[in-house]
Amino acid sequence: MLSILAEFLVVILKVLWAFVLAGLRWLVRPKEKSVAGQVCVITGAGSGLGRLFATEFARRRATLVLWDINSRSNEETAEMVRSIYRELEQERERDGAAAGGQGAVNGVEEVPPFQPKVYTYVCDVGKRESVYSTAEKVRRDVGDIDLLINNAGMVSGHHLLECPDELIERTMMVNCHAHFWTTKAFLPKMLEMNHGHIVTVASSLGLFSTAGVEDYCASKFGAIGFHESLSHELKAAEKDGIKMTLVCPYLVDTGMFRGCRIRKEIEPFLPPLKPEFCVKQVMRAILTDQPMICTPRIVYMVNFMKSILPFEAVVCMYRFLGADKCMYPFLAQRKEAMNNNEAKNGI
């Protein structure tokens, strides 16, 4: 009995210490780790957040492996990455020349050559066979990877009863099941080396839902559940060298949810996030091995309140904020666009 009480006391102390560390993280910015020379796979790299992740990792001299279903947009991202690499190489040459000019005096060695590359692959992450075959190509062409950014996502834009079953399945495959396939493809080597970092780009709608996007919310809830369970499995296996970061942003202005509106009086205080700001925040979390990032920080509070308040109280808050029907304008726009497209094509 005494041993259990002693162990429980140790647990309490560890919990309190965890709170202290979390507080320090908020007060003192942790040092960012280097990803120079590391291999980073990014799914959905052809546009939106995926493209911005690619450029941010390129600036940090990582080797990029870009996956997207759209070859053209993926190559556009790759060209942006190559442009950044060229700028970094020119900077290296300038620094090398400056160092060489004083090398005879100060013994400064020549700056090492810049070697990162970018690889592009067309991959439909919603199809298991496509993920596994593309992962095999990556291992053959590039080698082992260090970072996996599960970023690819989609939204159907239909009310539940109007959404074709195939589109619901597709949403689940891309937003949730794909995380299983990519992780199963790359995790074994990470486990062997006890090294790696897996990033799950989910959504605040994976923490708390709203009306009209049942398939999207379910897929993001699933992705978060997968991420959390995998995090616990790695801890249980004592694979502390493999880091996990869960990303839950509020509405990001990438066009995916164009038309989504909360109450107009509230919107100036809670506008859609600029993609560049969102990615900067997420990059800081990744590079400091932060387990979870919600942006803006009010998402943490909303998630906590949803967990402790009665459901009717949550509904009351939703209605006040205009969050209960915030997706309806977006859904109406999508429906109108589809009707116009059908009329144009004579369907």
Mean of residue pLDDT values: 91
Q: In which range does the helix fraction lie? A: 55-70%
Secondary-structure element order, N to C: HEHEHEHEHEHEHEHHH
Class by SSE composition:
alpha/beta
Percent of residues in beta strands? 5-15%
The coarse overall form would be: globular
Poorly predicted regions: 103-109
CATH homologous superfamily descriptor: NAD(P)-binding Rossmann-like Domain
* Count of structural domains: 1
> What is the end-to-end distance?
75 Å
Largest sheet geometry: 7 strands, parallel
In total, the number of strands is: 7
CATH architecture assignment? 3-Layer(aba) Sandwich
GO molecular function, one term: all-trans-retinol dehydrogenase (NADP+) activity
EC number: 1.1.1.300
Pathway: Cofactor metabolism; retinol metabolism
Transmembrane segments: 6-28
Concise overview:
This protein has about 350 residues and is of the alpha/beta class. The chain is built from ten helices and seven strands. It has one domain (about 30-345): NAD(P)-binding Rossmann-like Domain (Rossmann fold), CATH 3.40.50.
Explained architecture:
The protein is α/β, with parallel strands linked by helices. It has one domain: NAD(P)-binding Rossmann-like Domain (Rossmann fold), CATH 3.40.50.720. It is built from 10 helices and 7 strands. It has helices spanning 2-27, 48-59, 71-106, 128-141, 165-193, 214-236, 275-287, 298-308, 311-321, 328-344; strands at residues 39-43, 63-68, 118-122, 147-150, 196-201, 242-249, 292-295. It has a 7-stranded parallel beta sheet with strand order 3-2-1-4-5-6-7, with helices on both faces. The radius of gyration is 23 Å and the shape is globular. It is found in: Endoplasmic reticulum membrane; Microsome membrane. InterPro entries: NAD(P)-bd_dom_sf, Sc_DH/Rdtase_CS, SDR_fam. This is NADP-retinol dehydrogenase. The chain crosses the membrane at residues 6-28.
